[in-house]
Amino acid sequence: MRDATLRDVASRAGVSIRTVSNVVNGYAPVSDALRAKVETALTELDYRPNLIARNLKQGRSGMLCLVVPELDVPYFAELARAVIAAGRRHGYAVMVDQTDADPSRERELLTRNSRLTLFDGLILSPLTLSAQELRERGNKTPVVLLGEHLFDGSFSHVAIDNVAAARDATAHLISLGRTRIAAIGDQPYRTGETAQLRTAGYRQALEHAGLPYDPALVRPTERFHRRLGATAATALMALPHPPDAIFCYNDLLAMGALRGLRSAGVRVPDDVAVIGIDGIEEGEFSTPSLSTVVPDKQQIATLAVESLVALIEGGTPPAPAEVRAAHTLLPRESTLGAI
Amino acid sequence: MRDATLRDVASRAGVSIRTVSNVVNGYAPVSDALRAKVETALTELDYRPNLIARNLKQGRSGMLCLVVPELDVPYFAELARAVIAAGRRHGYAVMVDQTDADPSRERELLTRNSRLTLFDGLILSPLTLSAQELRERGNKTPVVLLGEHLFDGSFSHVAIDNVAAARDATAHLISLGRTRIAAIGDQPYRTGETAQLRTAGYRQALEHAGLPYDPALVRPTERFHRRLGATAATALMALPHPPDAIFCYNDLLAMGALRGLRSAGVRVPDDVAVIGIDGIEEGEFSTPSLSTVVPDKQQIATLAVESLVALIEGGTPPAPAEVRAAHTLLPRESTLGAI
DNA sequence: CACGATGTCTGCATCGTTGCAGAGCGGTTA
DNA sequence: TAACCGCTCTGCAACGATGCAGACATCGTG
């Protein structure tokens, strides 16, 4: 059966539509007698407001959309939890979508009639979208970007300092006395990528310690997944001069590396120390537990939502801001050991 | 600036609103001359349709909502990916929300003016909601339930056979020659829970093998998280007669158990064999890798979306169906060893 | 030339809600 | 008694789109 509308309730209660609306929303003063009649009719008809109509009238939906490449990458799942919480604090429901890390899916978001129009704002963690594509989109929903990707100043944008994070991770390995430090996760073929910033940080740390940069120790990976980490670690150990430490560009690569090393009979951290970035919970329980650099996901989420809400609600849209979130080094078993 | 509407485009192109709408949607035949004029105006004004208005008129949004307790529980993240894919195949965008496993958040979904009205349908994996609460909700969006929770016949519902899954897992441990088999994850205080079905399967397997049931070996846990698995495993090993195998009610508990055992100096699988349920990718890369019972997430997602779409689009709503998805035993290192 | 058939295009009503302006009414004040 | 106030309540218009019925022009046919 059709849902009851304000009109149905009004005719049943013998009042005007407007009065029913007032009762439902608690707007204007309504006499007790009428209110009672209306409320009876409301429950009898099991009325519930049509939010689409309300949204149309009010020009907003109260919903934000968070788009990440892959939800089953724990970092994004943990981030999503934080963003959902931050959204709630600002009175917005956050719905999450993923693009499967598929460029065409990412571009779909920018389409004329993307479903995103239904949302008041968009928090996007892009993987392959270029700044230009984003600027030229046929879609004016307010956007805040996550991650180090594209910062040409057109959009507000929240991220940790990836160069510093990578430097900290590498420096930590160096502080253990390791000298042949490998890196897994470079992506030299993309522009503006997180990966390249992390490579820069890695090299800075080497340089600062006076260690040589050996390109053979830097393994690119197409994506940041466990399996690729395992493969890369195995390949590294097969080198004539294998490394004594590995910096992985994220924790998932590191989890794979731990596994690959173990299968190769390499002891961690005794033979090879391993560190990642992301601070996912999984690394706390692995064997050995994983040292990592933890981005402050709470802070990232809060800053992103605050920026977005400012864009949405602000009379004068604030200038696009580049916001830095904090990160912390978290040493665990995978880098245990005296200097 | 205000977004351009059909009216704006129409007045600029000197045609009727209706004609612009026809051009945008490719509905009626439009002469080339007019079409060109309209399309010029469309691009000049950067028109994009207001989906809220369209949805209001058409009475549908083309979006489904998937609600899970916690996105950072890998099983749910992996399931979400499958549901999103299945939704796309049917022409729906799937947006994901989580309740933080918070009963009040779950109940919020059923509220009069829950944001869910914006969606054409709801796929819900409830944690604490009772069947009655669901039936009495003030919200008529079509629903399909996931997981073994509440099957009083009011709703369509997709799940694996949890009793059989637990039986298979336990039987696998027994087939290794283990005789003191513990269980982590019972939840005796809730009604109709997945956990209780798994306990039933566990006991069936013991009984079938003629093994005694020892309540001391069954550890309840409030939730299915790594830390609780670690704690429970540690406690089990402190018993006067510790177990030689542990069946964990999900993989996350098992990951915690592996870690707890390792910290206690227990070797897996030599001293204690471990198995979980869920088939999360994390278990493939842990040390040791985790034996598990894998629910067919693709199938669960496909069946759930198909049921929901049938509810939404079907002229005659099909009767609520109970659908069983397949599961498979996947032995890995954590249960390696001769019988 | 009259007629109907076809092909384009338009205006009105409508989806369900809320904003706005004001109607009706009882009571207070001068 | 007139003027005014405040409290309730109402009707109309509007949000931006689409469904529908029909207007109008053009064309072919008898």
Can you describe what's shown?
The structure is a homodimer of 339-residue chains. By secondary structure, chain A is α/β, with parallel strands linked by helices. The first copy, chain A, has 3 domains: 6-49, 434 Repressor (Amino-terminal Domain) (Orthogonal Bundle), CATH 1.10.260.40; 63-160 and 297-326, 3-Layer(aba) Sandwich (Rossmann fold), CATH 3.40.50.2300; 162-294 and 329-335, Response regulator (Rossmann fold, 3-Layer(aba) Sandwich). Helix content of chain A is 42%, strand content 17%. Chain A has 13 helices and 12 strands. Chain A has helices spanning 6-13, 17-25, 32-45, 51-58, 74-89, 103-108, 131-135, 162-175, 194-208, 226-237, 251-263, 282-285, 297-313, and strands at 63-68, 93-98, 121-124, 143-146, 156-160, 181-186, 218-220, 245-248, 273-277, 291-295, 322-325, 327-330. In chain A, helix 5 (74-89) links the parallel strand 1 and strand 2. In chain A, helix 1 packs across helix 3 (32-45), helix 5 crosses helix 13 and helix 8 (162-175) packs parallel to helix 9. The radius of gyration of chain A is 26 Å and the shape is elongated. The termini of chain A are far apart. At the A-B interface, helix 4, helix 5, strand 2, helix 10 and helix 11 of A face helix 4, helix 5, strand 2, helix 10 and helix 11 of B. Chain A binds a DNA duplex (30 and 30 nucleotides) through helix 2 and helix 4.
